[in-house]
Structure formats: structure tokens, C-alpha cells
Amino acid sequence: MPRLMILSASTRPTSPGPSIASWVTGRAVRDGVFTPFTVDLAELALPFLDEPGSPSQDAPVHPHTRAWSATVDSADAFVFVVNEYNHSYTAPLKNAVDFLFHEWRRKPVGFVGYGMSSRGMRAVEAFQPVAAALGMVPAAPVVTVGLRDDLDGAGVFRPGAALDSAADAMLRELGGLERALSGLRASAAA
Ligand SMILES: Cc1cc2nc3c(=O)[nH]c(=O)nc-3n(C[C@H](O)[C@H](O)[C@H](O)COP(=O)(O)O)c2cc1C
């Protein structure tokens, strides 16, 4: 089965991001199309980009970049779980993405945004041009989690049926795109 990397973009302790990523992982396991694995940017703890060369032209020199490159390279598709800060996505997400170049290319990406008033949609929409610049192909629909609606009184993420079906629709689309794009990657590599 193709490998799906589910990236929790938050680096903040107490973030609901990892539990949202874990819910997406559960939906992907249930779906049975991908073998999912998660990456938590807080645990990955990349420094600010410190490679001497350009990710599009030069091989990485630092062990943390090589390890990150191998992880992303091993994925056939991505889901980015994106938190919204000040109407956009966050600096750690941009930094993690900027470390690499070829590893993202011709792979589909689904988005789960979360936040308060806009449910993370502004963060996702701000990120989409970056994904396009790297040759990632976005899957519709975008899933959004509203922290006022989808957390219980204790702050625990409680997805309802509507969120489950939105995630399933996004994962179905991601599966279709992955089948199309894996052929394209194989012919580009030949
Ligand atoms: C610095 C900062 C800026 C924020 N800006 C927004 C915002 O513009 N729109 C929004 O809906 N929520 C905003 N929020 C609320 C966050 O979306 C919410 O706290 C969410 O849990 C943040 O993700 P995290 O818990 O993974 O850090 C902001 C929170 C922080 C800490």
C-alpha cells in the first residue's frame, strides 16, 4: 500500500494538533487505501534552515536534513494538519517544507485546518500556493476543525459524524490522486 505521511504542524505544547492527526490516522487505517504514519513537527524539532546549499540543487549535509529527506521521500502522499496563527499558517511549517524540494514533488496533499473563527481555513489557503510551488497536488475538500465546536468542555477533540465523513471524502480523493501521480512519478523517473 502507498504510504501516507500525516504531519502535525504545531510545535506548541497542549496543542490539539497531535490528537487531530491521530484521528486522521484512524480514518486512514479504516479506509485501507494507505499505510499511514505520523510526523509531529514538535518532536522533529528541526532548527531553522541551516543547509549551506539550495534544497533544489544541492545534497543535504546535515544529519537532521538527511533524516527529514528520507522520511518525506518515503511518503507517497501527505495530509498536513495545519494550525492557524494570525490568519496564516505557522513559521515552523514553512521552515520544515523549505528544507526539501524534490521530496514533495508530484505527490498529493490533503489539508486539515484548525483554528478558532475561520476553523483554520485561512491557514490552509495561505499554504496552498507554497504547496503548488513545490509541485504538490492538493486534494479537495479541505477539512476544517473549529476549536469552539469540536472540542469538549475539557478541551479534548471530539470529532462528530460530519467531520468523519469530510475526512473520508478527502482521503478518497487523496487515494485517487495518488494512483494517478504515482504513474507520473514513475514515468518522470524513467
Ligand atoms: C499566536 C496565535 C495566533 C492565533 N491567530 C489565530 C487566527 O488568526 N485565527 C484563528 O482562527 N485562530 C487563531 N489562534 C487560535 C489558534 O488557532 C488556536 O489556539 C489553535 O489551538 C492553535 O494551534 P496550536 O494549538 O496547535 O498552537 C491563534 C493562536 C495563537 C497562539
TrEMBL record:
Source organism: Nocardiopsis changdeensis
Protein's UniProt name: NAD(P)H-dependent oxidoreductase
Name of a matching Pfam family: FMN_red
Top-level taxonomic group: Bacteria
InterPro entries: Flavoprotein-like_sf (IPR029039), FMN_Rdtase-like_dom (IPR005025), NAD(P)H-dep_reductase (IPR050712)
UniProt-listed Gene3D superfamilies: 3.40.50.360
Domain NADPH-dependent FMN reductase-like: 3-145
